[in-house]
């Protein structure tokens, strides 16, 4: 195994997506994991701007809000607001959308073996 440090800037990412509404997400692959950063515009909603674009259901999602906020809805219908400085983990079947009229900037984390949108 290579023990050299891996240092990457997510803004100069390995992978970048632009969603139907112009929101963006980029990610860098590290040795065993990835770190993504997304800037989601007011009005962005996972089910409308990602699910429809990819045709995939939501999967487990781990993240941290840098600015703005999301409303998240679990598969059983429970809604919560997650804002700056808060970490979250969402189970498959969730939905999420930008709360209010400010963009939401969030980090997300995961294992490299399944790094897809």
Automatic annotation (TrEMBL):
Gene3D superfamilies: Jelly Rolls. InterPro entries: RmlC-like_jellyroll (IPR014710), RmlC_Cupin_sf (IPR011051). This is Cupin domain-containing protein.
């Amino acid at each position: 195994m290579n023990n050299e440090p891996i240092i990457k800037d997510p803004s100069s990412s390995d992978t970048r997506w632009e969603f139907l509404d112009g929101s963006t997400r980029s990610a860098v692959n590290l040795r065993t994991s990835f770190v993504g950063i997304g800037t989601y515009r007011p009005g962005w909603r996972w089910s409308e701007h990602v699910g429809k674009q990819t045709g995939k259901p939501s999967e487990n999602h781990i993240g941290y809000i840098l600015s703005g906020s999301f409303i998240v809805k679990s598969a059983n219908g429970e809604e919560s607001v997650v804002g700056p400085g808060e970490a979250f983990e969402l189970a498959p079947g969730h939905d999420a959308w930008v709360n209010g009229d400010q963009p939401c900037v969030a980090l997300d984390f995961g294992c490299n073996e399944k790094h897809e949108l």
